[in-house]
Amino acid sequence: MNFKIRASASGKIMTNARSKNELISETTKTYVKEWLIEKIYGIRKEIKSKYLTKGLKLEDTAIDKAIEWLDLPFTLKNEKFFEDEFFCGTPDLIVNDVVYDIKCSWDAFTFPLFETEIPNKDYFYQLQVYMHLTGCKKAVLTYVLLNTPEELTYEDKHNYDNMDKKYRIKTFEIDYSEEVIADLQQRVTNIREYLKTINHE
């Protein structure tokens, strides 16, 4: 089994080991063991939350709104799966050599209205991998705030239809980093060595 890291999971292997004698961290080991279990048994570990459910349910709407609110030229959601020796993944949008990844916030309190830096470092690594796979040198992490479907919440319905778009979309621009990719590639290599010690093939 040749281990490759999915772009969306790349942040999971970026924690450093506590000891210099360890190639990978305990957090990474946990992720790798789950990956191996999925491969051996042919099943995917399901992670359920209302936040993920909203993101999946409104994925296409969020992408359409991002295109509209960012005044992007007409484009379709990317369906192409990219991969190389180390990485794999499917970016949301590729427009004029820029990769866009769209995140759908749960509500106004999780929307990064006042943030000046990427709130979740995992997304930084995800977009680095997307840029590497596509050859793009720029990426835009985009958060959109959409109404939460009634069936997903027992709280008051979140309706933002009358809000100005400046309160409903937030972007973070990211430049490609060869150093980050080299680090990720080395970690994938280390994981492959670790897998040899726990896989019973």
The total count of helices amounts to 5
For the biggest sheet, the summary is:
4 strands, mixed
- Return residue spans where pLDDT drops below 50 for at least 5 consecutive residues: none
Q: Based on CA inertia axes, which overall geometry fits?
A: globular
Which CATH top level class fits?
Alpha Beta
The CATH topology assignment is Lambda Exonuclease, Chain A
Structural class: alpha/beta
Question: Average pLDDT value?
Answer: 93
According to DSSP, the number of beta strands is 7
A few lines on this structure:
By secondary structure, the chain is an alpha/beta fold. The chain has helices spanning 26-41, 50-57, 59-69, 121-134, 178-198, and strands at 5-6, 82-83, 87-89, 93-95, 98-105, 138-145, 169-175.
Structure description:
The chain has helices at 26-41, 50-57, 59-69, 121-134, 178-198; strands at 5-6, 82-83, 87-89, 93-95, 98-105, 138-145, 169-175. Helix content is 35%, strand content 16%. The strands form two sheets. It has a four-stranded mixed sheet with strand order 4-5-6-7. By secondary structure, the protein is α/β, with parallel strands linked by helices. The mean pLDDT is 93. It has one domain (5-198): Lambda Exonuclease, Chain A.
Keywords, please?
single chain; 201 residues; alpha/beta; Lambda Exonuclease, Chain A; 4-stranded mixed sheet; 5 helices; 7 strands; 16% strand
